[in-house]
Specification:
188 residues, alpha/beta, Rossmann fold, 6 helices, 30% helix
Length: 188
């Protein structure tokens, strides 16, 4: 069964304490994120990396502090999460070992090119990790479950803004048929 890894919003503004919208414990995920992304590369598994890419006056900033403004250091992904051969999803659906999908909302499915990318990759299983469990990861796993494919969430490569909301996300995910896994289970 073809597998695709989905690395959700592992960006400087979310992963580091000095980031504009820091997810508690995000920086501790870097070794796990790097291991998963490098494993995908070594095994020839396609890697989708979602990223926020907001305009300076983005409407989302009415609800959240400004973060991940396109072209800023905070919007960047740490080098540990990047593969050398990557493309940013644009007007054509290019596929490389890592496809970066920019979005202006919590839900990656709001990017009109995302569904076409999933169709082109034709995966039977998605392995998901990143931040924040209770926001963007929740949207990604919910949408992926909606495709009817198998979805696994890597529990030691995610972090929540609010622990209770993160636990609720995991419970809802498994109730809908999603499975929980670990970095070791995925990579060994």
């Amino acid at each position: 069964m073809k597998t695709v890894f989905v690395d959700v919003d592992t960006q400087i503004d979310f992963l580091f304490p000095a980031g504009a919208l820091y997810v508690p414990g995000g920086e501790r995920l870097l070794p796990a994120l790097a291991r998963l992304n490098r494993f995908a590369e070594a095994q020839g598994i396609p890697l989708i990396s979602t990223t926020d890419a907001h305009a300076e006056n983005d409407p989302e900033f009415r609800q959240w502090p400004p973060h991940c403004v396109a072209g800023t250091a905070g919007q960047s992904k740490p080098c540990e999460t990047l593969l050398a051969n990557r493309v940013t999803l644009g007007s054509s659906i290019e596929v490389a070992p890592q496809v970066i999908v920019e979005k202006q909302a919590l839900d990656v499915f709001t990017n009109p090119d995302f569904a076409a990318l999933l169709e082109r990759l034709a995966a039977g299983r998605y392995v998901v990790y990143g931040v924040a469990t209770d926001y963007c990861v929740r949207c990604a796993i919910s949408g992926l479950l909606g495709t009817g494919r198998k979805v696994a969430l890597v529990t030691d490569a995610i972090a929540a803004v609010n622990d209770e909301d993160g636990a609720r996300t995991l419970a809802e995910f498994t109730a809908r048929g999603g499975s929980l896994t670990t970095v070791a289970d995925v990579t060994d």
